[in-house]
Amino acid sequence: LMLAAGVGGGLVQPGGSLRLSCAASGFTVERWDVAWFRQAPGKEREWVSCISNVEGLTYYADSVKGRFAISRDVAKNMVYLRMNSLTPEDTAVYYCATDKVVACPGVLRGFELDYWGEGTLVTVSS
Q1: pLDDT tens, 95-109?
Q2: 50 has which bridge partners?
Q3: What is the three-class DSSP state of 104?
Q4: Do 86 and 124 form a contact (C-beta atoms < 8 A)?
Q5: How many helices (H) and strands (E) are present in the chain, helices listed first?
Q6: C-alpha to C-alpha distance for 50 and 9, rounded to whole angstroms
Q7: Torsion angle, CA of 120/19/16/104, rounded to 10 degrees?
Q8: Distance of CA 26 to the CA centre of its chain
Q9: Does 76 have pLDDT greater than 80?
């Protein structure tokens, strides 16, 4: 079971947009919940978003609500994070993660996940 960061990370100007991708192997995003986390330089890792296998329900941290959108492509077994109106405060290493037992409600409660992608760096700067 693996999670692999796809294309999308890199340098973007403030106010710009970027889409991150996460390719799933060994499980299906149709039945497992997938979450995005990020860790900014010198800061603790924080939860960003989560998409549930239940009707594809989505959840967002207050800091990104209205700007970020998580989505999935079941046929491609991919999960995406579309980021709009980016600011320098969004600069961080972004990770996708999943778990056999912990679903989105557990993620919001702070339960740790077992499977993590390698992370991709997003830098927002002019």
Answers
A1: 999 999 999 999 999
A2: 35, 59
A3: helix
A4: yes
A5: 1, 11
A6: 19
A7: -80
A8: 18
A9: yes
